[in-house]
Amino acid sequence: MRSHPSDYEMVAPGSLNAIISLMANEPGVWLPIAGGTDVMVQYAAGKLAARKLVSIWNLPELRQIETIGNEIRIGAGCTYSDLRSNEIVRREFPLLYSASRWTGGIANQNRGTIGGNIVNASPAADSLPALLVYEAELVLVSVRGERRLPYAGFHTGYKKTLLASDELVQAICLPRRFAGYFSHARKVGARCSQAISKVCIAALGRLGDGVVEDIRIALGSVAPVPLRLRETEQGVKGKAIDSELLHLARGAVVAEVRPIDDIRSTARYRAAVAGNLVAEFLKLLSLQRAKPSDEPVNTVLARWNRLSTVDAARNILSCCGSIAWAEAMAAKRPIADDAALLAASDETWRNLTPADWMEAFQSHPRIGESRSSSAQSPQVLASRDQSVEWSTQEQGHVAGAETAVKIALADANREYEQRFSRVFIVCATGKSGPEILEILRRRLKNDADTELYEAAEQQRQITQIRLKKWIQE
Amino acid sequence: MTDSRAGRTKAQISFTLNGETKTVHAHPMERLLDVLRERLQLTGAKEGCGEGECGSCSVLIDGMLVNSCLVPVLQAEGSNIITIEGIAAGDTLHILQQAFLECGGAQCGICTPGMILAAVHLLNRNPEPTLEEIREGLSGNLCRCTGYTQIIEAVAEAARRRAIA
Asked: What pTM did the predictor assign?
């Protein structure tokens, strides 16, 4: 049932002082509305309980991003577009930057605000786990004055917060001390963009002396509130990352999350994915060498940036066997850092033709074998030793599979090759033989177009993992 | 500036719309989309989902792409609004409109005004986008007819033409 506008009152006093006075006079009566990306949806659905609204959209007092001492202070009224275009956010808070890119489409990023997301308190919001791992603090304001409190603990239950009925969130403060950390964010949803997450992760970590020196992990959509995994963090801190630790971490995650069944997923799936996401983060973290945090550029990248175009393309071809991809990557140099390299790869990959994709697919051995097909150009063959070694690592779990699984895989591979006339591509890292078999059987049911895009997406993931290894060589 | 009717107040709200100053007498919580379509007879912006997911109600406010179904009209006070009706120069189509026509980027037409405005917003910020950037720029605009390929081609074509113009 749609709401009728005549049932609502709305004012726009235009200054922070006037707004908090209004809220102090009638506590709990005036609902602040910023960009409306949540409030107006409730309104349209006839579910907006408040009848009086006060606009806080575009208030200058809430829309600054400033650096004060050793922290960055983000006005609560900053939009996701504001965050995306801020250089400090992009450079020093990549988890917040990537969450800003994932939050809605461009129009919603132009209106949705970080403060609004915090107060709306959805456990599925993509930006909130990032605030947890960066150890954000909130500045709340009312006529009684300002108070500052840690963001962790602000959400007290599903859609419940510590905000008093006359208070506004004024700013979010992030300490600038995580620049040297390895960070990882991933969202698992029904599709890539514009889908509310089934589970999302934001994590930071640092290795020292071969062990996890410091770590912070937070997940969305696995509890009534965005959840920092403190028990899991304690369980892995000080330890070397090996298969035993990954096993332990998965168990700790499953014990710590409190997911539910809902329209988007099931509790069981969410718990399993949460465990996998944390294990994936730890694996990626283990690939990082302990390095001084003030080193501006990765040395492999620095050296590669200086190579001739031909050599640079040849050099990177082991990460993805498409010559067009390798040449485009070489042409994009100089590339500043890991994040830029990975982003450049994704962009290049998506803009290639299916023929280029096929060339990359051909550079992989059949799952369960170690040699790729021979119909390849000399350049691709030259990059093959490294690629073969990586394929062996990636398929490590398959090598240990039972004979029955290996036979079933070989059969399904043959069926796949007959059906689609190419080798089956899957990002095998961390996947067991039976898991791959299940994926392969499912994909045999795809039509040709769907399958082409699915294979391309798998190749994209393989390339990302290989690039991360490559720059650590 | 306000009067009282049915117990709630309406307000005089003024903004610039496609270059002309407009004043409407409306409830503050009326959606900008409804004000455009019903009070100002500009029916280019369409209502698809009514909850900010589909982009068919897109307009530009102060140069920023927004979903007009999520904007209470009071928040448009003093702003500069451009709708699809305002982007051609008289009888000369905007370069994006022309490219959509030629590339087959429009079928049923529901998403087209929003698509074109999202593309205007994109090209104003990034005159030479990659295909990936075009996809991202249009990611909040859903089309159920074309399969997107021709739309993306149209935007790429418009960018090419603008670069050589």
From this structure: 0.72
